[in-house]
Every structure is written in structure tokens, then in C-alpha cells.
Amino acid sequence: MSTEPTILSDTAPLDLRLSDDELEATHNHILQFIRDVVDGAGAEGAVLGLSGGIDSTATAYLAAEALGKENLHGLVMPSVVNSDENMSDAERVAQELEIEYDVVEIQPIAETFFDTFPEAANDRMAAGNVYVRVRGVLNYFVANHENKIVLGTGNRSEALTGYFTKYGDQAVDCNPIGNLYKQQVRQLAAHVGVPQDLVMKTPSAGMWTGQTDEDEMGMHYDTLDAILALHVDGPLSKSATMDHIDVTGEQIDRVVELYEQSAHKRQMPPAPEPLDL
Ligand SMILES: Nc1ncnc2c1ncn2[C@@H]1O[C@H](COP(=O)(O)OP(=O)(O)OC[C@H]2O[C@@H]([n+]3cccc(C(=O)O)c3)[C@H](O)[C@@H]2O)[C@@H](O)[C@H]1O
Ligand SMILES: Nc1ncnc2c1ncn2[C@@H]1O[C@H](COP(=O)(O)OP(=O)(O)OP(=O)(O)O)[C@@H](O)[C@H]1O
Ligand SMILES: [Mg+2]
Fold first, then answer.
1. 61-96 pLDDT per residue, tens
2. Residue numbering of the annotated binding site for ATP
3. What are the Cα distances from residue 166, in Å, to 83, 129, 192?
4. Which of 9, 53, 140, 197 is the most buried (most CB within 10 A)?
């Protein structure tokens, strides 16, 4: 088992960290994946949004290594709901990696949407999703122009719970860390040299002031990861899961509910079956 000491919380019900060999194999697999997607698209590199959070930071480190720093373009896109700390961390990541980056203030763009439907502008979720979707449009604006692909930063924990904005941060060409639970994203990030303060930063979708993933989902990522790995992805029944790890039936039910309610986000938009006319 890998020895990084600070990836797991003290109360983590399950240690999902990869062994050193598994971690290095995963690292190389993701580097190759990024190169394959870019080459397969005939593209000249990649664009990604930098939020100062661990998912985009880890993805940026991996992509800079896979593609070369000159082929990665970062967009830092602040609005009134983003903390200055996160935005300066995002710039710090770009500067540390020596990649090209732009800071694009998206508040005026979002305000145009809010002015169009003022009655929706005070709806925290609807308005928050506007920020997320505006970022997606800008990522593709730059990518189209520069013959680059858009790198997603989604991880497995988010994908299985639907914890992303449909056609927002999920509007991407690939998700290099998409098979890693959050705990494993932190582990891989530390492994590729991401500074420790970013590795252990509190996750936030940055859709409204003070939002954190764990408050909104109602549980710590280490608990979520454990239930996903054993019960949603894995074969253990609810009772067997409760026998194995220190989680409640309510927590398991909540995760299953998130998983089932978000099925539509993991599929292409459905259409009626063709009629046999
Ligand atoms: N059964 C169904 N079949 C087909 N479509 C269905 C549907 N149920 C809802 N929908 C559609 O989906 C829409 C709701 O989905 P959506 O628009 O995504 O919005 P929603 O899931 O309500 O909100 C997004 C969630 O993702 C979180 N998030 C967003 C962005 C980034 C991050 C992060 O971690 O950084 C987290 C955010 O905090 C929030 O909890 C509905 O308005 C409807 O259009
Ligand atoms: N202000 C922002 N500027 C640029 N990109 C952003 C911004 N906010 C979010 N994003 C993009 O949206 C993605 C999804 O956000 P998400 O919060 O899930 O990831 P994160 O911020 O990288 O990590 P964490 O989940 O730990 O906060 C980010 O990884 C980033 O690519
Ligand atoms: Mg974030």
C-alpha cells in the first residue's frame, strides 16, 4: 500500500488507495489515454478550465506531462461566487506548469443570461448552472479555434452520483480521471507532484458562495467513495456493506438515490424506439 499519509480522512470507512505499482500503472495509462484522444481527434493539444480545485489541477498536471506544456491551454473563469483563493490557486497551477492561460471574467456573460430571465436569476441552482455552462461554451470556443480538444475533469464519484451540470462541466471530449474515486484522485495528484494544500483542499463546485460538495451531498467523499466502491460498483448488498464498513443504512440509501436519479446524465438523450411502420 502506498504510504502518502494525508490522503485519507481519519474517519474514512475504506482505504481505496492504489498500491505503488497500481498507481504508476494508472498514471501511465492516463497519460497514454490523453495522447490517444488528442491524436485520434487530429488535434494539436487540449483546453481545460482551471478552478484551483483538485480535479482540474490533477488533470492539468497529467495533461501537461502527456502532451507537453506548450500544447495545453488553461482558462481561469472567475465569477462573483468564486473565492479569490481558488482563482489565485488556479493561476498558480498554470504558472507552475508553465502552460498558456487566460483569465476570463464570466460575470458579465452570466448577467446577460440573468437579465433575460430575471425570475430565474435568484434560483441558486439554475443560476449556478449558468456559470458552469458558460465555462463550457468558452472552453469549446477556444478549442475549436486552436484545433484542440476539451479535457474534462470529472471523476468516478461525481459521475456515479450525477454531481455535475448536464451539458456544463460534463460537456467535454474526455475525462482522464473519470475512473478514479475522489480518494484516488487525491492520491494520484500527490504522486504527480501537486502541492499538498491543493491535494487536500475542500471540494467545491463554485456555483454559489460558500458551496461545498460534501455539505450539498450530505456526506464526506471518503464515505461516498466507500459506498460506491462496495455497493454501487461492487457486489455487496446493503447489509453486507454495513457489516464491512462503518456507514449507516441511510447513507447507503442516499448514495443509491443519487445514483438512480442521475441515470439520465450518464446516457445519450433518449428518443422513442423506431415504430415498425
Ligand atoms: N429523468 C430525467 N430524464 C431526462 N432529463 C432529466 C431527468 N431528470 C432531470 N432531467 C434534466 O436534468 C436537469 C437537471 O440537471 P442539471 O441541469 O445538471 O442540474 P442539477 O442536477 O439540478 O444540478 C447540478 C448538480 O451538480 C452539481 N455540480 C454541478 C457542477 C459542478 C459540480 C462540481 O462538482 O464541480 C457539481 C451541483 O452542485 C448540483 O448538485 C433538469 O432540469 C432536466 O432538464
Ligand atoms: N472558476 C472556474 N474557472 C475555470 N474552470 C472552472 C471554474 N470552476 C469550475 N471549473 C471547471 O469545472 C470543473 C468541475 O468543477 P469541480 O469543482 O468538480 O472540479 P475541481 O474544482 O477541479 O475540483 P473539486 O471538485 O475538488 O472542487 C473544474 O475541474 C474546472 O475544469
Ligand atoms: Mg471545484
1. 999 999 999 999 999 999 999 999 999 999 999 999
2. 49-56, 153, 182, 204
3. 23, 9, 30
4. 53
